[in-house]
């Protein structure tokens, strides 16, 4: 079924209005960013290293606060969101990193379960849901294994499992294929397509042009902190 | 939905993963609490001894041996009329000598060469219950001293005052050690927490990314602190009790406190020391992690 972009844009899931992010007076990482991303959309954020892709995702996840402008996520103005409420916002968003950010002394199962445990979900529900997600990602036989014994592609799949286990509204991915070879990168890309097909909004930051060319998705190009396309 | 069932197992798993540093912290706390407990025990028993001694105050007045018998009877009547005097007993020099003979049965040589009449007659005065206090007994002693025929008055003032001074000094030492306990615990527990946080910084970052609240992150650290306080102070109290029981059978107390039986700290004091250690460690843990809890 084709995505009805017009309806999605009427009430965007994420909206950035004249967003700036500076660390010092002369170090501006994001400059006048205006962006609307609808529910269920798959958007690539492309640009060279240092263009501001990671900072853009961090601003959306409230890991960084914008210096100027407004960031809206699912009707919430992040500027007005108190620190106390930030964890609750993050539970509705998943994030995947280039370096996976798995906890070494937790098994695959425990790493994925952590995202539900922090929300206080009952253990029986956690076990059922984590098993289901690991199975859908082909990781069920690895659930008792520690991350260091997995390949890079498998580790990234565990990180994806952790980010989707709470059925987030939006999945942010920061160079998730950056540490993987071409074959594994394609596998991971297919996973993101599947997640997007289930209705989750995906924002995928990458500098990999090949990956973008292989799909027909919306692309936002950043350069020196500005959206150029 | 509750995060408590996740915080408790996480606490134990964290402690297992970093057991050596937790053990060292608990032992340091145990050492400091042991010193504090020992000092409290000494203060407690000295204070008790001084109280007991005050309660048993008796006044002994020495009477001029040349005083005629009728004057002695007059003197006894005057003393009995004084405020605070409950009972009196007149002891002749010979009776006093016989008492000494009985006391020094095994060391008779001490009394060799002393005649039976070398002691002056004395008047032993028992005071009423309200007089068991140095401040109240002093006016009575002044009145006794001023009576004709009385040459000297003795009431163990020096011992009671020395005991009181020792108890007060021990209390100061205990307070100083309490301060040391506070500083050491703050330093040791906060450093253990900082070390643990450094070792687990990636884990904490990941927890923040998946939406863990500060309570979820802080909870296991505070519980770890409480357990360290409990184990450390519990060990200290156990060691103190063992030491106390050992010393009680080994130490020979000097004459005047030979019949004083030292007692261990009462249960409320032990409970207070343990509870105080737990609260202190938990508070230090909570404050130490606070600076690392950014959003």
Strand content of chain B: 5-15%
- The total count of strands of chain A amounts to 10
When the domains of chain B are counted, the total is: 2
- Using the alpha-carbon principal axes, give the shape of chain B: elongated
Structural class determined from secondary elements of chain A: alpha/beta
What's the assembly state of these chains?
Answer: heterodimer
- H/E element sequence of chain A: HEEEHEEHEHHHEHEHEE
Cα separation of the termini of chain B:
23 Å
Strand content range of chain A: 25-35%
How many strands of chain B? 4
Describe what you observe in this structure.
The complex is a heterodimer of chains A (229) and B (295). Chain A is an alpha/beta fold and 229 residues long. Helix content of chain A is 34%, strand content 26%. In chain A, the strands form two sheets. Chain A has a six-stranded mixed sheet, with helices on both faces. In chain A, strands 2-1-4-5 form a four-stranded antiparallel sheet, covered by helices on one side. In chain A, α6 packs parallel to α7 (182-197). Residues 1-6 of chain A have low confidence and may be disordered. Chain B is an alpha+beta fold and 295 residues long. Chain B has nine helices and four strands. The two termini of chain B are 23 Å apart. In chain B, 27% of the residues are buried. The A-B interface holds A 61-63, 83, 86-91, 95, 101-105, 114-115, 117-123, 162 and B 1-3, 5-6, 17, 202-203, 205-214, 216, 295.
What's this entry about, in short?
The complex is a heterodimer of chains A (229) and B (295). Chain A is of the alpha/beta class.
Topology:
The complex is a heterodimer of chains A (229) and B (295).
Chain A: H1 5-10, E1 14-24, E2 27-37, E3 42-46, H2 53-60, E4 68-73, E5 76-77, H3 86-90, E6 93-97, H4 108-117, H5 123-136, H6 152-164, E7 170-174, H7 182-197, E8 201-206, H8 209-213, E9 218-223, E10 226-227
Parallel strand pairs in A: 3-8, 3-9, 6-7, 7-8
Antiparallel strand pairs in A: 1-2, 1-4, 4-5, 9-10
Helix pairs in contact in A: 4-5, 4-6, 6-7
Chain B: H1 4-17, H2 19-55, E1 58-63, H3 69-81, E2 85-91, H4 93-103, E3 122-127, H5 134-146, E4 150-154, H6 157-199, H7 201-209, H8 214-250, H9 267-290
Antiparallel strand pairs in B: 1-3, 1-4, 2-3
Helix pairs in contact in B: 1-8, 2-6, 2-8, 6-9, 8-9
